[in-house]
Amino acid sequence: MTKSTKVHGSLFLVSLIYAATFSIAKEVMPHYIKPMGLITIRVWGAVSLLWVTHFLFVKESIFGKKDFLMLLKCAVFGVAANMLLFFKGLAITTPINAAILMVTTPLFVAFFSFFLLNEKVTKLKVIGLCFGVFGAILLLLGPSLSFNSTTLWGDLMVMTNAIIYAYYLIIAKPLLHKYSPLTVIKWTFFFGGLLVIPFGFTELKEVQWQAIPNSIWSAIIFLIIGATFITYVLNAWALRNANATLVGAYIYLQPVLATIIAVSMGKDSLTLPKVLFSLLIFTGVYLVGLPNDAKSKI
Predict the structure, then answer these.
(1) Quick count: other Cβ atoms within 10 Å of Cβ 119?
(2) Residue among 105, 91, 100 at smallest CA distance from 151
(3) pLDDT by residue (tens digit) across 104-141?
(4) Domain limits at 162?
């Protein structure tokens, strides 16, 4: 299996997990655990897994105060602000609103990549980004999409999260070329965990632990292992071996996969427009993922 295939496979799995996260997280919050409390559980659960895994397989140290400061910056944008805004926003808005707003992330990634990483901007890359955006928006538009005053603050939080996450993908890349992805994510989550404690401590004290059913515990475990530990490690590895724009572009697949999951669970139906819009998204991801020498520069 080539490295390119592994990168695409990793990013596809990340998109699949995130596609399920929108609905699964809504099952947990805010009824059983409020957003800030759930984030604290999610982050510190991932911290435990990351430190054990790092100790067993990597055992790499960080050298230099500058790198620790950059890891702290990654923790602010990639963990604390990112997760707090997303989950707080998701608790207020609807899963479909959050999904459509998150597809703007690749645009911000491309913007930051151009100005901060000097990545090449090509005609096919721009066309691919446009295909992805249009396909995702068309797929998500429908009677269940409702941007109104009741979801406004949640929508704004998710939108801000999209910008913050895009910036995190950019600033983490230099560290990922210097250290193992597990090393970077281990310290990013440790610092991020310290930052979220003041926000989640009060909400954790309010949780009625004995009232949480097994199905919700299963959802919490999924959010810790799947939507946090696995996704961040795979994303970091992919970011080390691919350009940031490609990593961001896979967010376009989330509404496609979310639709497939809904259809398989009998909560939605597959129609010709949905198939066509999904093909538009896949085409966009393919164009963004082409090597630079296969594209025409702008």
Answers:
(1) 19
(2) 91
(3) 777 788 778 777 777 777 788 788 878 877 877 776 66
(4) 3-294
